[in-house]
Structure to design on (450 residues):
């Protein structure tokens, strides 16, 4: 059956893609339809047709799925941050569990029953402790903050985000008002001029502290003392206001230099019973409640009895490292970001953990250097791209008896699991965690044994 662009076809949504887009088949051809739910019967207008697949948009919802709900967020469907605002949370968990299982079976070549299940989040609103708002102008020239429309650099104005902390939204509002009043221009990426690029807010879930990092392309801005005064008055829990200077031409948010405008350079919080000081550059899980569950699972999978030497690659500010150190003889944390390594060292000292050490190095290089240390358990928590080739090769030279893999991307996890299992490891079990409700992202912990 030939599919024709701009023609309307009736179909039923049968699945979701990895990014939460609805999937249907029309005339045997795969068709992708955003903002739909499995079970939806709808009339779809095809907006793009290729040799193998087609893309459409809903013209009429003929019979809605039983899992469809009215989105609570007014920006749903326009903002690129959330893709599951229109379905029940139970359906979202089912979709995410299936996403992890499909990746492990289809890409990883594993038995799907190894995935024990998915742990849902206790809260699906205001769970994020970190917000990074791009700044721009609306058509009338007013200052706006929000989030990018999917696959674009167009900012969808959002003044109240349902997944960000309410504190972050309030701080962003103060900065917007100050920029408007004193004519502080947002950075224009096309023209390569302007001042404020992003508003970056972190909130300590347990400490109650908050920190603003204003990311700018210039160090000269008017009335900074007014901004500080207004922020301190509106947010008494604010402990630091920082300026990060970024003159790069790419999409990297943070620049290389951060100055303290007022207050403390570090934000304090507590996680898994430990106290942490965090710089803006340090990695820290954005969902506090789920992070504690995730790390408890990783420590349980590690099977520590108190005599092991553990290597924690991609350790960030040392959050997993300190959790593991409670049960191991020695834990070595490795991180490539110098500020994060300094954070980790201070965090170990402030928590009285003497059986840890930290190295500032690339994960693959460090793994090679430590190959002679007799590593009993390797824990990895890589970025979305997964393990690079150097890291994988180093692991296979080191051959630790157990590998605990914490992943934020099922596809790269499955790829790496397949590589490791092809070299003598086997997947014993896996557990998924919904760290990011209403978005397409999902975390997974896997235990591999040699």
């Amino acid at each position: 059956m030939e599919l024709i662009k701009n023609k309307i076809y009736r179909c039923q949504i049968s699945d979701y893609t990895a990014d939460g887009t609805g999937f249907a088949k029309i005339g045997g051809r795969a068709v992708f339809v955003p903002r739909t739910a499995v079970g939806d019967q709808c009339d779809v207008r095809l907006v793009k047709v290729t040799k193998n697949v087609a893309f459409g948009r809903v013209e009429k919802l003929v019979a809605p799925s039983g899992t469809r709900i009215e989105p609570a967020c007014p920006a749903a469907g326009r903002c690129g941050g959330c893709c599951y605002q229109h379905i029940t949370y139970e359906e979202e968990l089912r979709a995410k569990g299936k996403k992890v299982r499909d990746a492990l079976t289809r890409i990883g070549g594993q038995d799907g029953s190894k995935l024990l299940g998915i742990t849902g989040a206790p809260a699906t609103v205001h769970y994020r402790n970190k917000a990074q708002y791009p700044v721009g102008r609306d058509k009338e020239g007013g200052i706006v903050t929000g989030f990018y429309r999917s696959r674009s650099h167009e900012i969808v104005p959002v003044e109240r985000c349902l997944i960000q902390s309410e504190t972050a939204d309030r701080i962003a509002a103060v900065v917007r008002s100050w920029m408007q009043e004193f004519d502080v221009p947002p950075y224009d990426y096309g023209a390569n001029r302007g001042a404020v690029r992003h508003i970056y807010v972190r909130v300590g879930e347990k400490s109650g502290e908050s920190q603003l990092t204003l990311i700018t392309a210039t160090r000269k801005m008017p009335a900074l003392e007014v901004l500080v005064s207004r922020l301190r008055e509106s947010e008494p829990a604010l402990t630091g206001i920082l300026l990060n200077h970024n003159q790069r031409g790419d999409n990297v948010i943070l620049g290389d230099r951060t100055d303290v405008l007022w207050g403390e350079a570090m934000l304090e919080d507590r996680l898994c019973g430990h106290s942490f000081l965090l710089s803006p550059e340090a990695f820290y899980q954005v969902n506090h409640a789920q992070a504690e569950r995730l790390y408890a699972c990783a420590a349980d999978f590690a099977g520590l009895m108190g005599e092991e030497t553990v290597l924690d690659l991609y350790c960030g500010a040392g959050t997993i490292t300190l959790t593991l150190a409670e049960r191991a003889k020695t834990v070595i944390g490795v991180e490539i970001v110098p500020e994060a390594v300094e954070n980790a060292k201070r965090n170990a000292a402030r928590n009285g953990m003497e059986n840890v050490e930290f190295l500032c190095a690339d994960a693959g290089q460090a793994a090679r250097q430590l190959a002679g240390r007799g590593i009993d358990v390797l824990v990895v928590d890589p970025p979305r791209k997964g393990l690079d080739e150097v890291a994988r090769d180093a692991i296979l030279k080191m051959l630790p008896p157990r590998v605990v893999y914490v992943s934020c991307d099922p596809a790269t996890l499955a790829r790496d699991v397949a590589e490791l299992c092809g070299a003598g490891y086997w997947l014993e079990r896996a557990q998924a965690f919904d760290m990011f409700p209403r978005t397409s992202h999902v975390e997974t912990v896997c235990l591999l044994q040699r």
